[in-house]
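Target chain:
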Amino acid sequence: MEILRPALINVKGRIYRKNAVREEHYEDEEEDDFSYSGPAIDQFMDEPCDTSNIEQTDKGFRCAIDVPSVLYKYIIGKKGETRKRLESETRTSISIPKQGVEGQIVITGAQKAAVVSAVTRVEVLIETFRRKQPFSHFLTFALNHPHIQEGFQRFKDGVLEHCSQDMGVDGSVFQNPAKLHLTIGTMALLNEQEVMRACELLQKFQSFIRDITKGKPLPLEVRGIEYMNDDPSMVDVLYAKVSVQDGSNKLQVIADRLVECFVAAGLMDKEWDRVKLHATVMNTLFRKDPSVEDKGGLGRHTTKDREAFDAKNILEMFGEFYFGSFELDSVRLSQRFSSDCTGYYCSAGQVSFI
């Protein structure tokens, strides 16, 4: 099946097949190395690649690629083997800044086709290993309004009073009320330049948001809870339902368009056709790490990381629980593993609805 349905890598709109040719290890991580499966180097003049950033020099051709420093090691490889192999196979020279120094990877060669080949392979490597990086930022709608926090505390107190005898139900699995939020999408922003790109993109989106909201905050209601598996006695996450009070889909439209915009810019991977608008209120991962962030129910944690709890009584007694209403007035680019003066995530940027 791997032959019939090979893994594909999207690099700036171009699709490449991922070929595992060797396994390498980086700091106890097991990674694959990849090669470009295309025509030989002397045929690369017909490669459908944007070569506008390849410059002609006195000695041949040159291309500089912006690469976050945390990804250098994947281009270098163990004992420099990956870089040596790329240079040998493409007949180019690849210059990489020192580890930890943000800069550009510079590829030079006597033939333009050779430089194109090396650039393509390096970009595939970068895109592949970028996907393996833990997310650092995420777009959020903050739900930590005082009314919602008060409602959440009532919910928590009620559950612990009536359901603490049920399997796995205790205070350690509840969300921090100051961090209640809706996750729109997550990103691995690997240096300050990428954070700035994300902030600038979010600012450009402001006019669209204001067209939807008519320059006013969105009145939201948080009511009811739900789960996402087929057995309420074995769940690991419970979510609060969030809706616009006028019954419109304005919040959904904003979330979906934001994801489309950030995916198109290469800053986010699209996982589903529509954003699932829900807020985590209970998660067994909080038991192990209270600072863990929910990834919209689609986290990178495996099932072996999860513990289950019995939510049957919670759903029966609190299925339509009213957490409260408030007016949402912004979308934020939130920083993972951080807290501001309110207890919510630190904001790298935000756009107001007003």
In short: Residues 137-352 form a domain with the Cyclic Phosphodiesterase; Chain: A, fold (CATH 3.90.1140.10). The first helix runs from residue 72 to 76. The chain has nine helices and 16 strands.
